[in-house]
UniProtKB/TrEMBL annotation:
One of its GO terms (cellular component) is nucleus. InterPro entries: HARBI1-like (IPR045249), HARBI1_dom (IPR027806). Coiled coil: none annotated. The keyword Nucleus applies. PANTHER family: GH03217P-RELATED, PTHR22930. Residues 215-340 form the DDE Tnp4 domain. This is DDE Tnp4 domain-containing protein.
Amino acid sequence: MNNFQKEFIMDMFLDSDHACTMNRLIVATANVISENNDNLNMFGAAVEKEFDLTSFTEETKSPGVVPVTRRLKGFYENSVRNFTDADYSAWFKTKKHTVQALINFLKKYVNPGNISLEKKVHVFLWLMVSDCSYNEIGKLFGLHKSSVSYIFNEIATILNEHRYSFISWPSVEEQHITRIKVNSRFKFPNCVGFIDACRFKVGSKRNKKDKPEIILLQAVCDESLMFLDIHIGEIGKTRKNRVFKESTLSHELKNFIEFENHILGDSEYKLKKNLITPFTSEELLTSEEMKFNEIHWKTRSYIGHAFELMKERFRKLNHIDIVKVESVQLLISVACILHNFILIHEGSSEVKEETVACDDGVSINTSIVQTALEKRQFLCNYINYIDTEEVG
């Protein structure tokens, strides 16, 4: 601030008695501003030159909060490539060997270009595990935002084309293992999966006046939290049963699962022979029905854990700030694929391994039990009988 500016302010707002005091105040303020600008410039230069991530605190050690104001050069080459296993867990929410496995898988499908496949994969993963925009990630990795957009669509499209290599309905033998483990842990017989829907906000973060839309991801998982089937509804459709009716699973469920087996869903789904829901009634439930509902709720918790694990890892899902509907669906689909890919290579601490201590399940006489209502009542009676036997 020059002398003319200081005099102009004093003449307008002050009398002569206060001029000296205000003069000192203005000079002091100008010095602070100048000093802060110098500090910020020094900090930006240090980040660009050194790329030393160890200086960030634990609170800021997460993708999306690195204070980058201009495009950096060499961040990936000089820093990310030297990440340790601990760095990968902190920044990419996965292990280094899993990222390498993803690179090896994509080698056969990604076209060579000016940007290496290794860098593309790290840019792609950074986008998934953070809530950064294309522009912010571009600055961090020294790329234009259009390049980041291209990288995301290129890798996401390839993974989605191979979706059924990672998300597929289990074989009869695999279903058999699931129902043994679930019955062993929760005493709910013949259960081979769990269905629910997860809500995601879609819309611009910048325009605060527009209320975000909602999109539903319907998924079925097993006891290892692996997704067995996914279906992404249309934006704005928020009723689970309506989204279920539009999915392929609703038409193929009876072909996927034998009559004795079933998946579990909450009361928003319609009771089916192979989709068992809790008892609901305007009247009071019996003690047996309440016991059934309690075991049903505990057993169904697997799918909630699967959704939580995916959302904690892929922060991009917290608020999907994408305009194109196809890109929104692609993002959600790829998050599910990566969720399974990571579980295949790392497993999950959420899954409790237990010794199988009970038999396979229960046989259902189809000449007696024929309808969905009859099957649920049969299961209710069986669960209460087993509970009584154990107490006795």
